[in-house]
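Following up on my earlier thread - several people asked me to post the actual chain instead of describing it. Fair enough. Here it is, all 309 residues.
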Amino acid sequence: MFYLRVMLLGLSLALASALATNVAFLFKARGAVLAPPVEARHPLHSAAGLFRSRWFTVGWVVAIVAWLLHVGALSLAPLSIVQAVLSGGLVFLALIGERFFGFHLGRWQWFGVTITACGLVVIGLTGGGATEPQRASLSALISVECGVFAIGATLLAISTHGGVLHRAEGLLLGMSAGALFGVSNIAIKYLTHAPGALHGLVSPWTLTALLAGAISFYASARSLQLAPAVEVIALTSVAANLVAIFGGILVFDDPIGSGPLEIAGRFVAFCMVIVGAALMPAHRTKHAHADQDAIPTSGTAAGSESARG
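Reply from S.P.:
Thanks for posting it. Predicted structure:
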């Protein structure tokens, strides 16, 4: 009973993190298009250009708060369930994006939001199987982290191909950033199992989390400069949560149900969450096309906008 209460607290923190994460993404999206283009060869200069935009800086601060809430959730609840709740943050993305940031979603996007919410309800109703503390498998952790790093690197390499259009490059970078966010989340979850704060700090998985987080920072910022914000954020979320959910199952032996019916229900629910997220960028409205056409692509134009805040 005690562990169940702890898990519910963790899910509450995950829900708060989902809200803060998507607000942060929307702020950063507004700021990224006003900043000079991110260049891999000049990481410090690119970071300075991003943080000169007040919108991006505010988004980054909110993202830090979201990250702290996320770490708290990971320390209290199973990774796969935490990430499923974070997937439901797309509901916040849709509502806040339309209400406060001027984005307009079509029927497919709203359908995606609906089935995502339904999937989360099913996950919540079948969450009683996690009643004992978790254990982690180091061999599974190494395999999953290496495999996802390879996938992220492949997406990054494809995005730099000269024949890839800007919008496609942005979406590929968003997926790569999401995969690496997932790597960082799995590493952080593993560190919460460390038998002491010092052991966690000196663990090689701290370096893994930092490296993945740094690469995803630049990839995510550049993706927001190249493709429509809602599409990029949705795909980044899908990739991050898909990686973390399966990482939770494979590495931490997260429960997927205590019987055939519960297992089937949770599997369908996870699929609903992921499919719902994938439908977010399915169609764009005319308004979205107009917004994308208005995004500055040159460093000069972006710099002049950034100077105005």
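Residues 283-309 have pLDDT under 50 and may be disordered. That should answer part of your original question.
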